Amino acid sequence: MAVEPIKIAVIGDGGVGKSACTIRFVKNQFHEQYDPTIEQTYSTTVETEEFGSLPVEIIDTAGQDDYENFRSVSISYGQAFLLVFAITSHKTFEKMESMLVEAKEDAPKIVIGNKSDLSADRKVSVAEVEAWCKERGFKYFETSAKNNINVREAFVDLVQQAAKKRQHTRT
Ligand code: GDP
Ligand code: MG
């Protein structure tokens, strides 16, 4: 029997690098520009020690200023959520709070502080994010889609959390 794919929704403010992280993970590429209005789904496979080879579907969300659109997509699609902000913009960090309201409450979530290559322009301290994540039980990864740092680690961790949760739900 074919295994159902694990569905991940990538959410966060515009311009934080949702598409860049997704494309880095799925294709190992980085594009300086990616259409900010395109919402796209990607299929890939993740190898895990515990669960073997797992099919994964990722929706790279877009157009989240359109609240209704964001709402319907994230709620109906995601079984696990990657919350992305950019360490160079405090506003994008603050935005996660309101996005969280729309994500399924009991779904696994991971927080990504992207653009770590721009640390000279950092506006969000690691301590601040870690405190926020600790309160909510989320793991935190600082990533650079551009320099290929930590992106795979974050996605794989989330896939494993989702696979574990699925296993528990079934038995
Ligand atoms: P989205 O709106 O969240 O999907 O953001 P995009 O993936 O389209 O990225 C927005 C902009 O940030 C683009 O110009 C990217 O090239 C740039 N960007 C994305 N990730 C990184 C990163 O890790 N480092 C740097 N320096 N720029 C990035
Ligand atoms: Mg995008």
UniProtKB/TrEMBL annotation:
GO terms for cellular component: plasma membrane. The keyword GTP-binding applies. Keywords: GTP-binding, Nucleotide-binding. Pfam families: Ras. GO terms for molecular function: GDP binding; GTP binding; GTPase activity. The keyword Translocase does not apply. It comes from the Eukaryota. GO terms for biological process: signal transduction. NCBIfam families: small_GTP. This is Uncharacterized protein.
